[in-house]
Amino acid sequence: MKILIALLITINSYASITSIYSTRDGSYLSFNQLLEELPKSGFVVLGEFHNTKSIQEAQARIIKEKAILENKQSSTRIMWEFLNHTDQEKINESFNFLLSRSISTEEFVTKVAGKQNLAYIPIMEVAKEFGNAPIALNLPRELKKKVMNEGIGSIDPIFVPAHHYVGGEDYLTRFKLAMGGHAPDDMVAKYFLAQCLTDSVMSDEANKNHLNLSFIIAGSFHTDFFDGTVSRLREINSSEIISLKITSKELYDEEFIIGSDLFGQYADFILITQ
């Protein structure tokens, strides 16, 4: 059964989004129906494939139109995996330059995240329109590398959330598969520890900076199957959390729609972009 072909025929196109599927009731939705399904307040987790233009354009439209629908532009927070929370003051300073038109959105993204991440300009344009600086969720690479080489006790405890834990067997199994299934166990353990610390830190920063309606932009491996960052966030925040997996036609796998035999459904909603 060619699910992708069928849904492209039956579902209208919304900008770069060609189809929206709800795993909760097994139905296809319009873009406006999706907006109504998302929480009026709480968290919307936008699990993504990085640096894919159509995906970041879709994320920007979801954030903008949902915030406008709920009239919550001023209290909407855009939270981004690619930024280190230790740099938040510098990010805020650069964002003020963006608001004052001293720099362009392209220059802002280049300054805070690197030129390789210019696909995120549409999302930062929404942040600019709302007047809210993006919230940094991650830890610097050098701290995670230190954890990998010397253990979690090697870094200042202020960087390790109180609720941190190493993920379960399903997450570890997925992680091993993502690494190719051939890496030595000691190497897998080191990288997995850094992965789980990232999940803990991102959920912690999201929780601390949440006001009303928050959008978390993170790689889908951190959010697939309601695991990783999503599972940790649910432990520390009682707000509604809805998870999306956003893919493109080129990256699409039919399993995204039907779910995994081993791990279940990927997210509450699956979006496919041009």
TrEMBL record:
Domain Haem-binding uptake Tiki superfamily ChaN residues, every copy: 34-233
Protein name, entry field: Haem-binding uptake Tiki superfamily ChaN domain-containing protein
InterPro entries (alphabetical): Cofac_haem-bd_dom (IPR007314)
Organism: Halobacteriovorax marinus
